[in-house]
Design goal:
The chain has helices spanning about 1-15, 240-244, and strands spanning about 20-25, 30, 35-45, 50, 65-70, 75-80, 80-85, 90, 100-105, 110-115, 120-135, 150-155, 160-165, 170, 175-180, 185-190, 195-200, 205-215, 220, 225, 230-235. With about 240 residues, it is mainly β. The protein has a single domain (about 1-244), classed as Immunoglobulins (Immunoglobulin-like, Sandwich). The strands form 4 sheets. Strands 2, 5, 6, 9, 10, 11, 15, 16, 18 and 21 form a 10-stranded mixed beta sheet that branches. It is globular, with a radius of gyration of 18 Å. It starts with a helix and ends with a helix.
Protein backbone atom coordinates (compact mmCIF):
# COMPACT_ATOMS: atom_id res chain seq x y z
CA UNK A 1 0.00 0.00 0.00
CA UNK A 2 2.81 2.43 0.86
CA UNK A 3 4.48 1.70 -2.49
CA UNK A 4 1.20 2.47 -4.28
CA UNK A 5 0.82 5.77 -2.41
CA UNK A 6 4.43 6.68 -3.20
CA UNK A 7 3.82 5.94 -6.90
CA UNK A 8 0.65 8.07 -6.96
CA UNK A 9 2.46 10.85 -5.12
CA UNK A 10 5.30 10.82 -7.67
CA UNK A 11 2.86 11.10 -10.59
CA UNK A 12 0.89 13.92 -8.98
CA UNK A 13 3.84 16.01 -7.83
CA UNK A 14 5.63 15.80 -11.17
CA UNK A 15 2.50 17.15 -12.88
CA UNK A 16 1.75 19.92 -10.37
CA UNK A 17 2.96 23.43 -11.18
CA UNK A 18 4.87 25.10 -8.35
CA UNK A 19 2.03 27.51 -7.52
CA UNK A 20 0.31 24.48 -5.92
CA UNK A 21 3.15 24.51 -3.37
CA UNK A 22 2.89 26.38 -0.09
CA UNK A 23 5.17 27.51 2.71
CA UNK A 24 4.61 26.28 6.24
CA UNK A 25 6.19 26.59 9.69
CA UNK A 26 7.01 23.69 11.99
CA UNK A 27 7.85 24.04 15.68
CA UNK A 28 7.00 22.37 18.97
CA UNK A 29 3.56 23.46 20.13
CA UNK A 30 4.87 24.00 23.66
CA UNK A 31 7.96 25.79 24.89
CA UNK A 32 9.75 26.51 28.15
CA UNK A 33 10.68 29.90 29.51
CA UNK A 34 14.38 30.72 29.04
CA UNK A 35 14.95 27.70 26.79
CA UNK A 36 15.67 27.97 23.06
CA UNK A 37 12.76 27.11 20.73
CA UNK A 38 13.61 25.76 17.27
CA UNK A 39 11.56 26.82 14.23
CA UNK A 40 11.67 25.34 10.71
CA UNK A 41 10.33 26.75 7.45
CA UNK A 42 9.39 24.42 4.58
CA UNK A 43 8.24 24.85 0.98
CA UNK A 44 6.48 22.07 -0.87
CA UNK A 45 3.45 19.80 -0.58
CA UNK A 46 3.26 18.17 2.86
CA UNK A 47 0.55 15.62 2.06
CA UNK A 48 2.60 14.39 -0.94
CA UNK A 49 5.77 14.21 1.13
CA UNK A 50 7.43 16.96 -0.92
CA UNK A 51 9.87 19.32 0.82
CA UNK A 52 11.85 21.30 -1.72
CA UNK A 53 15.60 21.54 -1.31
CA UNK A 54 16.90 24.92 -0.19
CA UNK A 55 19.48 24.85 -3.01
CA UNK A 56 17.11 23.25 -5.50
CA UNK A 57 15.18 24.87 -8.36
CA UNK A 58 12.01 25.90 -6.52
CA UNK A 59 12.93 27.07 -2.99
CA UNK A 60 15.31 29.88 -4.09
CA UNK A 61 12.34 31.57 -5.80
CA UNK A 62 10.61 32.05 -2.41
CA UNK A 63 13.65 32.57 -0.16
CA UNK A 64 13.05 36.28 0.52
CA UNK A 65 10.59 35.74 3.36
CA UNK A 66 10.55 37.40 6.76
CA UNK A 67 10.01 35.50 10.01
CA UNK A 68 8.71 37.05 13.23
CA UNK A 69 7.60 35.99 16.68
CA UNK A 70 4.96 37.93 18.63
CA UNK A 71 4.50 37.41 22.36
CA UNK A 72 1.26 37.62 24.34
CA UNK A 73 1.81 41.34 24.97
CA UNK A 74 2.15 42.12 21.29
CA UNK A 75 5.92 42.57 21.24
CA UNK A 76 7.21 41.65 17.78
CA UNK A 77 10.73 40.37 17.10
CA UNK A 78 12.20 39.54 13.71
CA UNK A 79 14.08 36.24 13.57
CA UNK A 80 17.20 35.42 11.58
CA UNK A 81 17.13 32.23 9.51
CA UNK A 82 19.78 29.76 8.35
CA UNK A 83 19.55 27.34 5.41
CA UNK A 84 19.48 23.60 6.01
CA UNK A 85 18.95 20.83 3.44
CA UNK A 86 15.19 20.99 2.85
CA UNK A 87 14.19 23.85 5.16
CA UNK A 88 15.35 27.01 6.86
CA UNK A 89 15.93 27.04 10.61
CA UNK A 90 15.58 29.70 13.25
CA UNK A 91 15.19 29.91 17.01
CA UNK A 92 14.27 32.23 19.82
CA UNK A 93 14.15 32.06 23.61
CA UNK A 94 10.83 32.94 25.30
CA UNK A 95 11.39 35.12 28.34
CA UNK A 96 7.85 35.00 29.76
CA UNK A 97 4.92 32.60 29.94
CA UNK A 98 2.15 33.09 27.40
CA UNK A 99 1.07 32.35 23.84
CA UNK A 100 3.60 33.14 21.11
CA UNK A 101 2.70 33.42 17.43
CA UNK A 102 5.31 32.76 14.77
CA UNK A 103 4.54 34.58 11.51
CA UNK A 104 6.08 34.14 8.08
CA UNK A 105 5.33 36.63 5.32
CA UNK A 106 6.53 36.57 1.72
CA UNK A 107 5.26 38.86 -1.02
CA UNK A 108 8.67 39.30 -2.65
CA UNK A 109 8.17 36.68 -5.33
CA UNK A 110 8.61 37.23 -9.06
CA UNK A 111 5.53 37.26 -11.29
CA UNK A 112 4.62 33.82 -12.65
CA UNK A 113 3.06 33.14 -16.04
CA UNK A 114 0.90 30.02 -15.92
CA UNK A 115 -1.35 30.74 -18.87
CA UNK A 116 -0.40 27.30 -20.20
CA UNK A 117 -2.15 25.86 -17.13
CA UNK A 118 -5.18 28.16 -17.70
CA UNK A 119 -4.30 29.92 -14.42
CA UNK A 120 -3.06 33.26 -15.74
CA UNK A 121 -0.24 35.66 -14.89
CA UNK A 122 -0.04 36.37 -11.18
CA UNK A 123 1.96 37.55 -8.20
CA UNK A 124 2.13 35.24 -5.15
CA UNK A 125 1.76 36.21 -1.51
CA UNK A 126 2.56 33.50 1.07
CA UNK A 127 1.69 33.85 4.74
CA UNK A 128 2.14 31.22 7.46
CA UNK A 129 1.58 31.05 11.20
CA UNK A 130 2.30 28.67 14.08
CA UNK A 131 1.58 28.68 17.81
CA UNK A 132 3.91 28.11 20.74
CA UNK A 133 2.44 27.85 24.22
CA UNK A 134 4.70 28.62 27.19
CA UNK A 135 3.03 28.00 30.54
CA UNK A 136 -0.64 27.26 31.17
CA UNK A 137 -2.43 30.50 30.28
CA UNK A 138 -3.38 30.13 26.60
CA UNK A 139 -4.64 32.89 24.32
CA UNK A 140 -5.68 33.15 20.69
CA UNK A 141 -2.86 33.43 18.20
CA UNK A 142 -2.18 36.81 16.57
CA UNK A 143 -3.22 37.63 13.00
CA UNK A 144 -1.15 40.32 11.27
CA UNK A 145 -1.52 40.54 7.50
CA UNK A 146 -3.03 43.81 6.32
CA UNK A 147 -2.39 42.97 2.66
CA UNK A 148 -3.58 39.37 2.45
CA UNK A 149 -5.04 36.36 4.24
CA UNK A 150 -4.08 34.88 7.59
CA UNK A 151 -5.19 32.00 9.81
CA UNK A 152 -5.87 32.56 13.50
CA UNK A 153 -6.36 29.80 16.09
CA UNK A 154 -9.21 30.58 18.47
CA UNK A 155 -9.68 27.14 20.06
CA UNK A 156 -7.65 23.95 20.41
CA UNK A 157 -8.50 21.35 23.03
CA UNK A 158 -6.37 18.66 21.28
CA UNK A 159 -9.56 16.93 20.09
CA UNK A 160 -11.09 19.77 18.09
CA UNK A 161 -9.65 22.99 16.73
CA UNK A 162 -11.36 26.18 15.58
CA UNK A 163 -9.58 28.52 13.21
CA UNK A 164 -10.57 31.89 11.79
CA UNK A 165 -9.55 33.03 8.32
CA UNK A 166 -9.03 36.77 7.89
CA UNK A 167 -8.56 38.81 4.72
CA UNK A 168 -6.90 42.17 5.28
CA UNK A 169 -7.87 41.95 8.95
CA UNK A 170 -11.55 41.08 8.40
CA UNK A 171 -13.27 37.66 8.63
CA UNK A 172 -13.41 35.85 5.29
CA UNK A 173 -16.70 33.93 4.94
CA UNK A 174 -17.41 30.99 2.63
CA UNK A 175 -13.77 30.45 1.75
CA UNK A 176 -12.35 27.02 1.05
CA UNK A 177 -10.00 25.55 3.67
CA UNK A 178 -8.03 22.34 3.15
CA UNK A 179 -6.76 20.15 5.99
CA UNK A 180 -3.79 17.96 5.04
CA UNK A 181 -2.11 15.05 6.77
CA UNK A 182 0.47 12.67 5.36
CA UNK A 183 -0.18 9.83 2.88
CA UNK A 184 -2.36 11.94 0.53
CA UNK A 185 -5.26 12.39 2.98
CA UNK A 186 -7.05 15.73 2.90
CA UNK A 187 -10.39 17.24 3.85
CA UNK A 188 -12.07 20.29 2.33
CA UNK A 189 -14.11 22.64 4.51
CA UNK A 190 -15.58 26.13 4.13
CA UNK A 191 -15.56 29.00 6.58
CA UNK A 192 -18.84 30.26 8.07
CA UNK A 193 -20.08 33.85 8.07
CA UNK A 194 -17.56 34.74 10.80
CA UNK A 195 -14.69 33.28 8.77
CA UNK A 196 -14.39 30.35 11.18
CA UNK A 197 -14.03 26.63 10.61
CA UNK A 198 -13.88 23.76 13.13
CA UNK A 199 -12.68 20.19 12.71
CA UNK A 200 -11.65 17.20 14.80
CA UNK A 201 -8.10 15.94 15.32
CA UNK A 202 -8.65 12.16 15.28
CA UNK A 203 -5.06 11.08 14.67
CA UNK A 204 -1.81 11.61 16.50
CA UNK A 205 -0.05 13.27 13.60
CA UNK A 206 0.79 16.62 12.05
CA UNK A 207 -1.96 18.68 10.37
CA UNK A 208 -1.23 21.39 7.80
CA UNK A 209 -4.10 23.74 7.02
CA UNK A 210 -4.15 25.78 3.81
CA UNK A 211 -6.49 28.43 2.45
CA UNK A 212 -6.09 30.50 -0.71
CA UNK A 213 -7.70 33.53 -2.31
CA UNK A 214 -7.48 35.05 -5.77
CA UNK A 215 -7.44 38.84 -5.49
CA UNK A 216 -8.52 40.33 -8.82
CA UNK A 217 -6.13 43.26 -8.65
CA UNK A 218 -3.76 43.74 -11.60
CA UNK A 219 -0.46 45.46 -11.10
CA UNK A 220 3.25 45.44 -11.83
CA UNK A 221 6.15 43.94 -9.86
CA UNK A 222 9.79 44.42 -10.82
CA UNK A 223 8.69 45.74 -14.19
CA UNK A 224 6.45 42.75 -15.00
CA UNK A 225 2.67 43.08 -15.29
CA UNK A 226 0.38 40.64 -13.51
CA UNK A 227 -3.38 40.02 -13.70
CA UNK A 228 -4.09 39.15 -10.08
CA UNK A 229 -2.56 38.29 -6.70
CA UNK A 230 -2.73 34.70 -5.48
CA UNK A 231 -2.80 34.64 -1.67
CA UNK A 232 -1.92 31.45 0.22
CA UNK A 233 -1.96 31.08 4.01
CA UNK A 234 -1.06 28.02 6.10
CA UNK A 235 -1.22 26.95 9.73
CA UNK A 236 0.56 23.88 11.12
CA UNK A 237 -0.71 21.86 14.10
CA UNK A 238 1.93 19.44 15.45
CA UNK A 239 1.15 15.89 16.50
CA UNK A 240 -0.44 15.26 19.89
CA UNK A 241 2.84 13.84 21.13
CA UNK A 242 4.48 17.24 20.53
CA UNK A 243 1.56 19.07 22.13
CA UNK A 244 1.88 17.09 25.35
Amino acid sequence: MKKLLLFISLILTTSLPSFAHYMWIETNATGTKNQSQEIKVYFGEYTYGVSEKVKGEAFPKVKDFTLWVIDSKGNKTELAVKPATDHYTSSFTPKEDGTYTVILNNDKIDVIDYTKYDFGIFKTHYHSTAKIQVGEKAQNTVAQNDNGISIKEVKNDKNEVTLQVLYKGKPLPKNEVKVFVSDLWSKTLHTNEEGSVSFNLPWNMKYVIETTLKEELPGKYKGTDYEFIWHCATYCIPSHSINN
